[in-house]
């Protein structure tokens, strides 16, 4: 029996790129409104202040917008922690910014420097964060710089919880910046024994499969991602594991060479893959590279564009534009990756390095050292 996948209603009469752009614009707008709204920021600050005042040290990430201000108000130490390199950009290793990505690609083809986009990104985000600027003024606290960058950074310790292989130390990083290496975490709340048995049985029943694992907003709003992934697998005669939310499983008809599964820890899924097709999230990229598995990166939002750029530069895989995500293009990209000696060498070099990283230990040692300094 052949494999059949019913197209999603949202994608029936809309080109892939148009659908993705509309979905991502809506997603960006909703997130910015909820995260940066003045009332939301003030409510976050009100909730944090009593907790911060009882603390010796506070650790927060790029989503804890009020954390740094709360620590400055209360006179407590603040440690900034980031998961992806985009959060601590450098003009010496200019990143790819979300939603400016098409412009950056055109600039790259024209030979222009990506550095030109850093001031633009700073300007755009500063305009969005005027409510934070007003709160700093209300409390009489000098803003140390841009509220999204210097305003979030610590004067003592800034942890970048990723591999220095992906994000080498830069001279213009904030004071106390440290790339810790990956902090590997295998979530016990995902999947179960039955799911793992099904995955292992399928993976070992033939040649290693291609794993299609969408990330970010593509998980909940996949457009034609699943349809095109199935087309690519079937047209190239490859076995495949497709990771999809359960609400989408009814779209797939049974097929001997395709397993549709729910979300499952990448630590136990990617080890069975010949290649992983994913959005370029820093976690998916790290796990794939740790197992020496090449990536076909299909970024669509936030830090995914920059992560994909870094991965391609050091030979962990190749990038396919989301607007070109069709069965034929996917199959062609997979063939190119699997025949690329540079990628094979890059993964062979980096896999043992990542396997030895213990970002959690490095971060804890740095935090304990900071506490010891404070005590002294």
Automatic annotation (TrEMBL):
GO molecular function, one term: glycosyltransferase activity
Gene3D superfamilies: Glycogen Phosphorylase B
Domain Erythromycin biosynthesis protein CIII-like C-terminal: 258-350
Keywords associated with the record: Transferase
Region named Disordered: 1-24
A Pfam match: EryCIII-like_C
InterPro entries for this protein: EryCIII-like_C, Glycosyltransferase_28
Name of protein: Glycosyl transferase, UDP-glucuronosyltransferase
Taxonomic lineage of the native organism: Bacteria, Pseudomonadati, Pseudomonadota, Betaproteobacteria, Burkholderiales
